[in-house]
Design brief:
four-stranded antiparallel sheet, about 20% helix, alpha+beta, homodimer, 13 strands
């Protein structure tokens, strides 16, 4: 659109980041592909999206990180029989992830005679707070009873298979997986680029099983706001405060019930929840609010006036509870679940239209917890049995992953498990 | 995440935009749903996304508008036999679209005893430059030979059915449609909200046929940049300058070959182009650049040094053209196509993984033109026959729509056709 055909070499050279080997190959018709996305700018502008989240650290990034605007979640099936291949893959993933999270390409440029080491669609884009979070599914520890990689004894007790729930309408192609990568960024192309380049480096060791994109409107300009899901309601008002170390230690980071290699990690439960958009949109406002337990516009509990007022679950009017007995916030809340808490990190999705002309849209529900047996599972058992929202939702995908602790500079995620 | 449970009424009341009928219904457990998204703020911040694009005007917005970051394109099948219903739908769509593009809800709030007039997920979000652009498919003018709405004589000559192309691998569920809505916004939730609420107001008059989301990284902070597609190459370098009235008049806005009701409108060709990501990522850099005709990093033509250098199609080296005879930019460019030009407005898409573990991703190619017979069709015939990219792409969806001119304040898009 900005079709300025006059050469703008000064701007181009800064933006296109054509670096290294000056003129080498240019005359021969072959340009060197520089992979630094943001480095090398002589006068970097104060760019939206310039912020980075370090890949290395005590915990993996992307769990306590304030949610970015876009998700690309991917699960992989391991296709190798060799433990060394898995180790090599995880090493390569950490190396590439650290580079991409810093705003660089997945790998150094290679000879023009071979395939580019980075697919290139994020060249020139800012890091956009990219995080790449790795997880291990049950299949890493055993598949069909076989201890493929000598890891069965190391399987964490909290890494359980989820029980069936009444709201399940699961599609196998949307769940499971031996490994997962959660890519989050404030730019969808940066998130996609992360998954694509890790998938590529998986080679013949692992293949993509499923991937789900999602979005989240969590900011209005510079102001954070509680995002709304596609029910139109604020979602996450009563979430765990990820900046509170005590709350995170109690509810999110793996504890004594996990093996040592998982300490500092967390368990991800991912559920693709399709919303029956068209039916919901015909439900009267008062009924929608009763099913949730909150006002649609303000997010206030039915017993309060402002979003962050604590719900009064005991309040009654005309002999009936103000917040109905089957309201979502009553059943999902701590008090109904013996204190079980999970850190929600969900994204909305919009995957087109089904064969009946209905939007295939909803919530990619993601939550992190210390132990799914005392986190997601009891909460979801209660919701599946009683939640007034159940008429409007179905769970179409499901997966659980043990996300190990972070790695120190130069280390790799998974080394605590493999003992390297 | 910002789990501040203390009441913050000052902030909440400004952000939640709970307006109108103070306390009415609150005591009764029913809150009024205010639909103004950005109005009513007592101290509006200088918010990213606050800019609006007017719905009304000589031309429909969303054609010459600088591309927003997100697309939600939707096509509908008309399910009514009555012309009056189509008119009523188009009137309602224009009314709702003008409101949503201004940052308001789709309609005024209604009684809490009935379904909310707006689905609500964009409450509190800025307008995000939302545009909603309407188009008419061939089926509006005749279906199976039947002149359903008395419009067959008004069908524009340029609204042709596309011929088959060698690159076609079309899925009927991803193409066609009697009506279309192109929603573009800098926030994907705002774009989705637009389509969802128009689909809802279609009632029994029309039903969704398909919808495609897309994204575009066209800015690094405040600086516009030529976006990269998922081939990793800059895409749109040599596009029409949409701010040049002469170029737009020549190539984009409907002219004398169109009926009077289309003057000021344009024809949209939409093609879902899946990329063979995994194969492309194994192609050597030099070969990728030869197939495109440009450098991957800089976007410069193989005969130049900077992105906006004009390609030298006559340059030869060792007796062979520097820009190969089957290079994409040679075949797609004006000089190969007797001057045919189209205004491209494409978005990338990422729709998960197919049954073989391959990313289902690519380019939702959108282009606007004065007459597809002298725009997209000859260009695509040439590309389908010779383009060196063909090994890496397939066209999985296809549609053509006549997008009428814009409407004046208070008017509705389509009134020029229906003579109202």
């Amino acid at each position: 659109m900005d079709d300025d055909r006059a050469p703008r070499r000064g701007r181009i050279s800064r933006r296109a980041l054509l670096a290294g080997a000056p003129a080498a190959g240019i005359a021969a018709g072959i340009g060197g592909l520089a992979l630094a996305r943001t480095r090398g700018s002589s006068t970097p502008p104060a760019t939206a999206g310039a912020a980075t989240v370090p890949f290395h650290g005590e915990h993996q990034a992307g769990i306590a990180t304030p949610p970015q605007a876009h998700l690309q979640l991917a699960a992989f099936d391991l296709t190798t029989a060799r433990r060394e291949d898995v180790i090599a893959l995880l090493r390569a993933w950490s190396l590439a992830a650290a580079r991409m999270c810093a705003g660089d390409g997945a790998a150094d440029p290679l000879d023009p005679a071979v395939a580019p080491a980075d697919s290139g669609e994020a060249l020139g884009l800012p890091p956009a707070r990219l995080t790449l979070t790795f997880g291990f599914g049950a299949g890493l520890f055993a598949r069909d009873g076989a201890d493929r990689y000598g890891l069965t004894a190391a399987r964490p007790a909290p890494l359980v298979d989820l029980p069936p729930f009444a709201t399940d309408d699961l599609e196998p192609a949307r769940g499971g997986g031996d490994l997962c990568v959660q890519a989050c960024a404030d730019d969808p192309q940066v998130a996609f680029h992360g998954v694509r380049n890790l998938a590529r480096s998986a080679g013949t060791t692992a293949m993509l099983r499923w991937s789900q994109a999602g979005f989240l409107a969590a900011r209005a300009g510079d102001e954070p706001l509680t995002p709304r899901n596609l029910l139109g309601f604020k979602d996450g008002t009563n979430n765990i405060d990820a900046t509170d170390p005590a709350a995170m230690r109690d509810a999110v980071w793996a504890g004594d019930e996990s093996p040592a290699w998982m300490r500092g990690g967390s368990y991800l439960v991912a559920r693709r929840i399709r919303l029956r958009i068209e039916q919901w949109d015909r439900d009267p406002l008062a009924d929608q609010e009763a099913r949730i337990g909150r006002r649609k516009a303000s997010g206030a509990p039915l017993t309060g006036a402002a979003e962050h007022d604590a719900p009064d679950l005991d309040a009654v009017t005309d002999g009936a509870p103000v917040i109905p007995s089957d309201a979502h916030i009553r059943l999902a809340g701590m008090s109904a679940n013996a204190g079980a808490r999970i850190l929600r990190r969900s994204y909305s999705f919009a995957d087109g239209v089904d064969a009946l002309g209905r939007l295939d849209a909803g919530l990619m529900f993601l939550c992190y917890q210390r132990d799914p047996r005392f986190g997601f599972i009891p909460v979801q058992e209660r919701l599946a049995a009683h939640d007034a929202l159940n008429h409007y939702i179905s769970h179409t995908g499901s997966a659980v992953f043990a996300c190990p602790p972070g790695a120190a500079d130069g280390g790799w995620v998974g080394s605590t498990l493999f003992g390297a």
